[in-house]
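Hi, here's the filled form for the chain we discussed.

Project: internal
Contact: R.S.
Residues: 104
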Amino acid sequence: MLRWTAAALLWIVGGLLGLVGGLLCVTVILLPLGIPVLFLTRRVFGLAGRLVVPRELRHPISELADRGSDAGKNAAKNAKKTGKKTGKKAKHGVHGLRKRLHLS
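And the returned structure, exactly as it came back:
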C-alpha cells in the first residue's frame, strides 16, 4: 500500500514537472532549462512505474536465474546429506549382516 501511495505522489510530481518543462520549452529563451526538466520528468515517471510493478515482472530472467541457482544449491545440500545418511546405513547394514553370518 505504501509503494502505491509513493508511486501516486511521484506520478503527480512527474505531471507537474512535465507541465513546467513543457512551458519552459515553449519559450525559446528558457529552452535550455526546459529540456533537462523534461528528462527529469521521464525519470520520475519511470520510478513511479517501477514502484508499482513487482520485481519478478521487471526482471524475469534474473529472478529465474536466482531461483535456479538456489534450487541447485539446495539439491546439492540434500544430495550430500542423503549420501551421508545412506553411507552410514549401508555401513551398519553390512556390519549387522556380518554379525548374523558370524563372519567377523
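Let me know if anything looks off before we file it.
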